[in-house]
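Fold this sequence, please.
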Amino acid sequence: MIVIPEKIVLLKVPKAASTSLARLFWDRYEMDPFTKLRTGVATSVRYRLKLAETGTQLPVLNGNWFFNRTADFGWHCSFAELQCLFGNQLKDYHWIGSVRHPVARLFSAFSFQVAKGRLPMQLTKTDFAKFVELVVTNHPSLSMQQRIHTWPQSVWLPPNGWDKSLSLVRQEHFIEDMIALVDRVPTFAAGLDSMADKKRFNHSFRGEPTRFFTRNLVETIEEYYRQDMARLGYQSWFESRGSVPRARLLKLDGHSKARLTPTS
């Protein structure tokens, strides 16, 4: 998602509260998230028009407007894809990525698919273990959406070491990470109160998911997503319950400001 008036790119990582962030921009600019562009318009935006000119008519560009994709992709579009499309036009933009502990994120993908009736499974510990096995073995029975929702978060983010203008909003510290960006993102400043009051996450499961986990299963998930675990600074689930170490939060201007520290 590109928010032209604010020079922001939101990388909508699936199952990491990214739609809650996107909704703030859609609401502020009165955009219908389900609007679709005709092929000719999308091509013009991609090849013929400058972003600054486009923004006078379309302040928010959804990531699904530039590819002939199925609805399984939702509004998700990666850093690499947007760089390929717009290149230097985005050089002065600030990039924001939504992220989440890999264990909680995979359980969220599972519970979403069960709630939607897209998995022949129930919300049980046994079936979650079966779903994990399908994911880590890249089983051919997985649907396109199930694959997209369970790709590593690093797939959507800039390459490791690219941290020129990237901020992460972690679902575990959602509000404080938004506070860290209010000076840079006017929409966050305007929407902070509503987010704090309503916590508008899309929930397919409410409660404590740890009862669905075993230590062996958590180790399997964390090994599969080891690149995400290292890059995003997450500790093992049973050590931290999905939290990022507080040492990664810096106190600036009276607010907690999260900073990405890439790992090699």
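Residues 245-264 have pLDDT under 50 and may be disordered. The chain is about 40% helix and 10% strand.
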